[in-house]
Amino acid sequence: LRRGATRSDLAGRRVVVSAGGTREAIDPVRFLGNHSSGRQGYALARTAAARGADVTLVAANVSLPDPAGVRLVRVESAVELAEAMETERAGADAVVMSAAVADFRPVTSAASKIKKSGDAPAPIELVENPDILAGLVASRAREHTEQTIVGFAAETDDVIANGRAKLARKGCDLLVVNQVGGGRAFGTEDNQATVLGSDGSAVDIPTGPKEDLADRVWDLVVERLPG
Ligand code: CTP
Ligand code: CA
């Protein structure tokens, strides 16, 4: 049996997981996007459901089979994801932001398909998207509720130092830090990570299936849930 497969330590808990990658419209047929497959988020949703949780999965542009026993909410853009997360987070025991959110979106999305004109192409002007994770932390603070908030980060270079700084900046409880580069993480079946805690903890999770990483993340969430 896989880790967590026989446990029901999330029974009676409501969790919200975001997955996939946002798409920011340029015109009706084009977008700015990223390579996130949604596999890690779907694994988080499946494992939480297997452990008894009431799961809402907010999926941005994922083409994977719908996980059984999970409420699925579909979004496309970062702004739509932000709205869905703010709605779904209310009353949840844990929120996990595993979606890859576009940092910027085009200032305007053209109503009609942009055509070649023969001249030099017009630049695409960008504006920053809302920081959804930081927004979730702010909402929790406003409500004075207990909720465990988890972020994900893909880092290069000094992975742990970058992760610590990001954890502090975002104000979440746990940050799952993946080392990227060399074809790791995006679109692959296996994942390796270090989970940094706001309490100063660091838990290394060896390379393995995304399901195993998901179960380890839920272990750390369960430790932080109020009785
Ligand atoms: N995130 C978010 N809203 C954004 C950007 C990121 O909620 N606008 C979340 C991601 O879902 C992830 C975490 O924040 O859980 C870290 O994402 P990352 O892109 O690493 O953080 P950024 O603050 O965007 O920093 P960077 O400049 O390194 O991209
Ligand atoms: Ca980013």
From TrEMBL:
<feature type="binding site">
    <location>
        <position position="113"/>
    </location>
    <ligand>
        <name>CTP</name>
    </ligand>
</feature>
<keyword id="KW-0456">Lyase</keyword>
<keyword id="KW-0511">Multifunctional enzyme</keyword>
<keyword id="KW-0479">Metal-binding</keyword>
<feature type="binding site">
    <location>
        <position position="166"/>
    </location>
    <ligand>
        <name>CTP</name>
    </ligand>
</feature>
<comment type="pathway">
    <text>Cofactor biosynthesis; coenzyme A biosynthesis; CoA from (R)-pantothenate: step 2/5.</text>
</comment>
<dbReference type="GO" id="GO:0046872">
    <property type="term" value="F:metal ion binding"/>
</dbReference>
<feature type="binding site">
    <location>
        <position position="152"/>
    </location>
    <ligand>
        <name>CTP</name>
    </ligand>
</feature>
<comment type="similarity">
    <text>In the C-terminal section; belongs to the PPC synthetase family.</text>
</comment>
<dbReference type="GO" id="GO:0004633">
    <property type="term" value="F:phosphopantothenoylcysteine decarboxylase activity"/>
</dbReference>
<dbReference type="GO" id="GO:0015941">
    <property type="term" value="P:pantothenate catabolic process"/>
</dbReference>
<dbReference type="GO" id="GO:0004632">
    <property type="term" value="F:phosphopantothenate--cysteine ligase activity"/>
</dbReference>
<dbReference type="GO" id="GO:0015937">
    <property type="term" value="P:coenzyme A biosynthetic process"/>
</dbReference>
<dbReference type="GO" id="GO:0071513">
    <property type="term" value="C:phosphopantothenoylcysteine decarboxylase complex"/>
</dbReference>
<comment type="pathway">
    <text>Cofactor biosynthesis; coenzyme A biosynthesis; CoA from (R)-pantothenate: step 3/5.</text>
</comment>
<comment type="function">
    <text>Catalyzes two sequential steps in the biosynthesis of coenzyme A. In the first step cysteine is conjugated to 4'-phosphopantothenate to form 4-phosphopantothenoylcysteine. In the second step the latter compound is decarboxylated to form 4'-phosphopantotheine.</text>
</comment>
<keyword id="KW-0460">Magnesium</keyword>
<feature type="binding site">
    <location>
        <position position="103"/>
    </location>
    <ligand>
        <name>CTP</name>
    </ligand>
</feature>
<dbReference type="GO" id="GO:0010181">
    <property type="term" value="F:FMN binding"/>
</dbReference>
<keyword id="KW-0210">Decarboxylase</keyword>
<feature type="binding site">
    <location>
        <begin position="130"/>
        <end position="133"/>
    </location>
    <ligand>
        <name>CTP</name>
    </ligand>
</feature>
<protein>
    <recommendedName>
        <fullName>Coenzyme A biosynthesis bifunctional protein CoaBC</fullName>
        <ecNumber>4.1.1.36</ecNumber>
        <ecNumber>6.3.2.5</ecNumber>
    </recommendedName>
</protein>
<feature type="domain" description="DNA/pantothenate metabolism flavoprotein C-terminal">
    <location>
        <begin position="10"/>
        <end position="223"/>
    </location>
</feature>
<comment type="function">
    <text>Catalyzes two steps in the biosynthesis of coenzyme A. In the first step cysteine is conjugated to 4'-phosphopantothenate to form 4-phosphopantothenoylcysteine, in the latter compound is decarboxylated to form 4'-phosphopantotheine.</text>
</comment>
<comment type="similarity">
    <text>In the N-terminal section; belongs to the HFCD (homo-oligomeric flavin containing Cys decarboxylase) superfamily.</text>
</comment>
<keyword id="KW-0288">FMN</keyword>
<feature type="binding site">
    <location>
        <position position="170"/>
    </location>
    <ligand>
        <name>CTP</name>
    </ligand>
</feature>
<keyword id="KW-0285">Flavoprotein</keyword>
<feature type="region of interest" description="Phosphopantothenate--cysteine ligase">
    <location>
        <begin position="15"/>
        <end position="227"/>
    </location>
</feature>
<keyword id="KW-0436">Ligase</keyword>
